Amino acid sequence: MSRPILLLRLVLFAIASVLVTVSCTSQTPDVHESRFMMGTLVQFTLADIEKDKALDAIHAAADEMQRVADAFTIYGDKANAVKAFNASKPGSRVILPEEVSDVLQTSLRISKQSGGAFTPAIGSLSLLWGFSLPNPPVQPPAETAIKHALRGVDTDLIEFDGKTWKRLHAETKLDFGGIAKGYAIDRGIEVLREHGIRNAIVDAGGDLRAIGSHNGKPWRIGIRHPRQAGKIFGWLEVHGDISIVTSGDYERFFMYNGKRYHHILNPASGHPARRSISATVIAKNATLADAWSTALFVQGAKALPLLNAKGMQGIVMDAGQKIYTGSVALVPFHLENSKAVEE
Ligand code: ADP
Ligand code: MG
Description:
Elements: H1 3-16, E1 31-37, E2 40-46, H2 51-72, H3 81-87, H4 98-113, H5 123-129, H6 143-150, E3 158-160, E4 165-167, H7 180-194, E5 200-204, E6 207-211, E7 219-224, E8 232-238, E9 242-248, E10 253-256, E11 259-262, E12 265-266, E13 271-272, E14 278-283, H8 286-299, H9 304-309, E15 313-317, E16 323-324, E17 333-335, E18 341-342
Parallel strand pairs: 16-18
Antiparallel strand pairs: 1-2, 2-5, 3-4, 5-6, 6-9, 7-8, 8-17, 9-14, 10-11, 12-13, 14-15, 15-16
């Protein structure tokens, strides 16, 4: 990616997600710090804490998140167990680190529950489209190449015997791009807590977890408008421990023949999912919220009842910019303007 575009993206991310109410009393000022990782600007906001203590905690949390990112990525030159699995001989047994094995099992469960809308077996297809490669694509791949990659996109081709993992097809490759950021956020929050932090937000470009409160008041979390740069279409008021993750078609995309092609793929077609332009999930941890936001994006508003039945809250905007909220509200959601909300 060229530098000006990267910088522009950084600025947009910075405006994007968290709207922390500015405190104008004599309370301890918030401590802000950010680090670029996982392809995005990760922002830490800590409230009601001394600066030195906050910065120590943030540095430890950021290091842990970078460790997670390195352990799960399928990009770059550094070796890791996921890349080794993806390169393993089909049918051979591979031992994955416990952490990767656990996240893979969670991923497979969510894949099943979401009817395959979210799948960790999407690696070959993701690599083919190439949205996360150093040189992002400018046109879609050939249909024959998509069909070829799709042969491996099937969780039945991933086997676990309680100890070792196998992939059964050369095109079956893991990609944790739809869940690892959430898991990294959960680990980051855990490390902050180990450092005695009680009030914080870890926001990785619109994927976040909040704990505690903002000087006794709720945190205000804006949801970025997918078609109006720098604007939000609604906001949430949260306190306590909650995760809010948004999947959108505006982060990594290209236009080709007047059509938008983006990085959230429909495993049923092998093409970018078209039922939503933004999908937000509010859940008890960021790992779940991340995976389900990808699933909700792919399935669209029709998946809201399922999500709600599982105790999660969802907000979907479809291609016509209509907003759907479902029936479960774990936290209050406020629309930025008066556009109708469909239940
Ligand atoms: P973001 O990374 O922008 O937060 P998501 O959480 O929705 O967005 O994850 C998108 C990433 O997940 C893609 O870059 C790709 O690596 C992977 N992915 C794309 N489509 C799917 C899918 N249907 N199921 C699981 N992972 C997916
Ligand atoms: Mg996701």
